[in-house]
Amino acid sequence: MITRVVLDGGGFPLSGMLATPEGRRWHSLIVALHGSGMRAGYFDCRSRSGQSLLELAAELGWAVLALDRPGYGDSAEQLPEGQHLPDQAVALRTALGDFAERYSAQEERIFLLGHSFGGKLALTAAAECAWEGRLFGVAVSGCGHRYAVSPEELATIGGNENWWMNWGKLRLYPPGAFRLSEAVVAPVPSREVEEALAWQERFPRLAPAIRTSVRFTFAEHERWWLHEERAVRDLPEMLSSAHVTVDRQPHAGHNISLGCAARSYHLRVLSFFEECLLEREMVGEVSA
């Protein structure tokens, strides 16, 4: 079941979509965070059967809360310039507190899933927010630590001139994908451009504070980030996490969840999250 939700982000509304299993309580919550120029519906694309993360995860017993980040959806009018990453992290944690109260989920096991700029937010929130042991894992796609483009190119994120950077080859997407994706496209708030330009300096400072398991995924045809083996060799060492995985998604462009590889990618992420649950269970049993 998928319903529309509006949560308190700290004096402004954060809209989104909540997917839950039919007829039973979910076992864990995935918080899905979209990239620049998109909305929460990025995770519910249906141009191909089985493509929607919300639908797939709910079928497997998960709840998925896909939120419109600050500056998008219902908060766009109040926050036309968006927010800087630390402020977005605070807004996210505030919204999850509101969610916990409304859905009696104070003890919820939480996972963060971020795409592109949403990956930056997921990593920032993992490093800077208090989770009281409830954050079990983070998965990001389309987000690394070294850009493959110049600052001038990066400053044009969201512009039509760079559509090929986000999409890649047309054959990577099902028929109708571009038409259906029009419903989830949105203007990029100016503060996100500032944050994107500052990411290569910000990430090394926040990475050591990330202690939960993290999975980075780069699409085979990713063009925004350097992701060959030598370029990401030092990435796991920058985090304090015991478990950091760097993976590639074949037959995919930057917007993985809108393409033909979406289901394959989503299943890989859910498998990683299941492993995080198992690891926490086994470590708990040993320490007990």
UniProtKB/TrEMBL annotation:
<dbReference type="InterPro" id="IPR029058">
    <property type="entry name" value="AB_hydrolase_fold"/>
</dbReference>
<dbReference type="Pfam" id="PF12697">
    <property type="entry name" value="Abhydrolase_6"/>
</dbReference>
<keyword id="KW-0378">Hydrolase</keyword>
<feature type="domain" description="AB hydrolase-1">
    <location>
        <begin position="30"/>
        <end position="255"/>
    </location>
</feature>
<dbReference type="InterPro" id="IPR000073">
    <property type="entry name" value="AB_hydrolase_1"/>
</dbReference>
<protein>
    <submittedName>
        <fullName>Alpha/beta hydrolase</fullName>
    </submittedName>
</protein>
<dbReference type="GO" id="GO:0016787">
    <property type="term" value="F:hydrolase activity"/>
</dbReference>
